[in-house]
Amino acid sequence: MSMSRGLQNCTPRPAQLLDSDVFRRQGHQVIDFIAEYYSRISDYPVHPYVLPGFLSRRLPEAAPSQPEQPDPLSAALNDVRDLILPGITHWQSPRHFAHFPASSSTIGALGEALAAGINVVPFTWAASPAATELEVVVMDWLGKALHLPKSMLFEGGGGGTLLGTSCEAILCVLVAARDSKLAEVGDGRIGDLVVYCSDQTHFAFHKAARIAGLRKDNCRVIPARREDMYALPPAALQAAMQTDVEAGLIPLLLCSSMGTTPTTAVDPIRELCAVASPHGVWVHVDAAYAGSALICPEFRHLADSVDAVDSLSMNPHKWLLANNDCCALWLKQPSALVAALGTDDDVILKDAAAAAATDDGVPVVDYKDWQISLTRRFRALKVWLVLRCYGTDGLRDAVRAHVRMAAAFEDMVTSDARFEVVATRLFALVCFRLRPPTAATSRCEADDLNKRLHAAVNATREGPYMSSAVVGGAYVLRCAVGSTLTEERHVRDAWKVVQDHATLILAVY
C-alpha cells in the first residue's frame, strides 16, 4: 500500500466532520441536554463538595484512539451529566448570590452557538466584512443604550470593540496610554511612569500594569473610606499626583471604578478627571458590573461625567444577558489604541487592507489592531441578537428585577437587629454582617462569628451560595442578586437560611 493511499484511507471525509444531518441530530441532543439541565439546576448544590483531583481519578488517563460506539456524543453527554455537572459551581443557579452575575439567556446562548457554527475570524475587515461592520453597529447601538457620550461612538469620532474580559480592556488602554506618553517623554522614562487606583479597584489593574512593564512600586493605591462610600477621594489623588510630579515621576493613568467588586462603590469621576487633567493623565472607567445599569434611566446620572474620560469598559456578559464572554470597550481616540497594538508587517494583511480601502470616506476598521490577539471571536453576533430579541426595555426589566430583589433582601437585613448593612446599596449587591453580640466583643471575635456564619450558609446543600469581602477592615458577607433564574422566593429562602444559622451560632457564643 502506498503512503498516499494509506493516508487517504485513515483520514475522515469532510462530510463526516461537518455533515448537516449529523449536526442537526447532535444539535438537538445538546439543546435537549441543556434544557434538561436548566429544568433540574435547583437539584444541585450551588457549590460542589469535592476535593482536588476528584475528576481526574474518574476519567481515563488518555484520550480514546477511537470514538465510542454507536453514539459517542450520547456517551460523552452522560459523563457530563454524571461526572462534570456534580463538580461545578452552578453560576446560573437561582441560589447563586456569591459573585456578580455571569448572566445567561436563551438568545445569548443561541447566539454563541450561531457564532460557533459560522466560525468566522473577523480580525480584519477584509477577512469578514459583515462581521466587522456588525461590531461597529453593535458598539454604537450599545453605547447609545447606555447613554454614553457621542464622543465615544463611531458616529462621534470615537469607537468601540468587543473583547473577552475587562482584564483585556484595561491592559489594552494601559498600553495605549503608555505608548502615547513615551512618545512625548522618551522610551527611556518607562520606569518613571506612575498609575493610580483605589484600594477597592479590581486586582486586574495591578496585573495589567505588570504586564505593561510598569514598575510594581509605581502603582499608587489610594485608600477609600466608609464616609466616602468607599469611593476614591479626589483630594487624596491630587496629593499623590503632586508628590510624584515633585519627585520627577510621570503620572500616566487613573483607573476609576463604576461599581467596585467589594461594595459596588462609584468613584466621583468628574472630580477625578479635574485632578488628572492638568497632568495629562489618561482616565479609564472600569464599569465591568455596574455599566449595565446605565441602560436604566434611574442610573443614567452615573454616565453624566463619562464625557470627561478617555475610555470605558463594561461587561454585557455580567448583567445584560449576553453570556460569557463579552466585554465592551469604548475610547474617544481609538487611534491611540491602534498606534500601540496595530500590525502592518504582514504583506497579506497589507494587500487585504489596500483592497478594502474606499474613497468615499468610510473608515475601514481592522479589529486586530484594537486588541492583543489576532484571532478573535464573532462576539458581535450574540450581542446584536440580544439587543434585537430582548430590546432595551427587556434588558432594563432584567436589571430592575434584580435591583428590586436586592432591595428586598436589604430590607430583611435591616429589620433584624442582629445584623447590619455595612455599605450603601447602589445596585443589586448587599454587603452585611452580624453585629458584635456584646459591647465586649472584639473586632476579631466579630469577624470570626461572621466567618462561621458564612461557612455555615454555604454548607447548606439546598441553601444559597454567597461570597465574602473585607470592607472597612471588617469581614462581611456579600449577597449579589443577578442570576437570570432568581426569583423573590429564592431571596426570601436565602435570608431564612442566614437567619437560622445566625441563631444557632449566637446560641453558643
Q: For this structure, what is the CATH class of the largest domain?
A: Alpha Beta
* Secondary-structure-derived class: alpha/beta
Uncertain regions spanning at least 5 consecutive residues: 1-7
Shape: globular
Percent in strands: 5-15%
Strand order in the largest sheet = 1-7-6-5-4-2-3
- Computed Rg: 25 Å
Classify the fold: give the CATH topology of the largest domain: Aspartate Aminotransferase, domain 2
Any overview of this molecule?
This protein is an alpha/beta fold. The chain has two domains: 120-377, Type I PLP-dependent aspartate aminotransferase-like (Major domain) (Aspartate Aminotransferase, domain 2), CATH 3.40.640.10; 388-507, Aspartate Aminotransferase, domain 1 (Alpha-Beta Complex), CATH 3.90.1150.10. Helix content is 43%, strand content 11%. It has helices at 3-10, 14-17, 20-40, 72-84, 106-118, 129-145, 166-185, 204-211, 234-246, 269-276, 316-319, 334-341, 347-356, 379-414, 443-458, 488-507; strands at residues 159-163, 193-198, 219-222, 250-257, 282-286, 311-314, 327-331, 419-421, 429-434, 467-471, 474-480. A seven-stranded mixed β-sheet has the order 1-7-6-5-4-2-3, with helices on both faces. Helix 5 (106-118) runs antiparallel to helix 14, helix 7 (166-185) crosses helix 8 and helix 15 packs across helix 16 (488-507). The longest helix is centred in the C-terminal third of the chain and has 36 residues, at 379-414.
